[in-house]
Amino acid sequence: MVAMKRRWSGAVAAVVLLMAGVAVAEEWETVATEPYVVKVRARPGSKVKDIWAEGEMKASAAQAQAALEDAESYRLWMPYVKESRVVKPTEDGGRLTYTRLDLPVVSSRDYISHVVTESKVAPDGTGAYVQRWKAEPDAFPARRDVVRLRTNEGSWKVESKGEGKSWVVYKFTVDPAGSIPGFLASVGQKDAVLDTLRAVEKRAKSLTVTPPAK
């Protein structure tokens, strides 16, 4: 049961944190400091919150890039993700993706994202990987048994910090759509975003990235 509570995907993290209450102030509030710093900032008058997390990941930038670029595999390792697929490429070189989450207690959620990779790690492992996404909820009809997330945007930035290490900055903004029980909010307040980063790190470390031939 404890392990189950600790398994949250990026979208789940947002859903849980957003229902923890809407603050009046717009300043960033630090909700975790180890192993990553996590900050939350409320948008007054709404359920929406901005989330910012950053810190050192024990995986190379190239490995993290390989994990995050493979949207088709999210359902295999990203917590609570039951469906994940690339729907089609977009004219700007990005892709339209579909993700469905099966959550405990509450209804399933899904979201359609326009994902763009703005930069990639260099062949020698240096540089930065940058991915951005924004919801396109009306790209195709919603399913009757699933709640569609209409506000969902964010970014990943992963920079090389030497062999086997990288610095990760993870930002996102999501409206959870519908109601989330208070006990889920209290569970996710400290752990949700951190568990997302742990999941990415674990997946990244399991991947072998072959360096280019000299």
Concise structural overview:
The protein is an alpha+beta fold.
What does this structure look like?
This protein is an alpha+beta fold and 214 residues long. 23% of the residues lie in helices and 35% in strands. It has helices spanning 2-5, 10-18, 61-69, 74-77, 182-205, and strands at residues 29-32, 37-42, 49-57, 81-89, 95-101, 109-119, 128-135, 147-148, 152-160, 166-174. It is globular, with a radius of gyration of 17 Å. Mean pLDDT is 83; it is low at 2-11, 19-25 and 181-188.
Strands, helices and their partners?
Elements: H1 2-5, H2 10-18, E1 29-32, E2 37-42, E3 49-57, H3 61-69, H4 74-77, E4 81-89, E5 95-101, E6 109-119, E7 128-135, E8 147-148, E9 152-160, E10 166-174, H5 182-205
Parallel strand pairs: 6-8
Antiparallel strand pairs: 1-2, 2-3, 3-10, 4-5, 5-6, 6-7, 7-9, 9-10
Helix pairs in contact: 2-5, 3-5
Q: Treating each run of at least 4 consecutive H or I residues as one helix, how many helices?
A: 5
Q: What profile does the largest beta sheet have?
A: 10 strands, mixed
The percentage of residues in β strands lies in 25-35%
Q: How far is the N terminus from the C terminus?
A: 49 Å
Q: Based on DSSP secondary structure assignment, what is the total number of beta strands?
A: 10
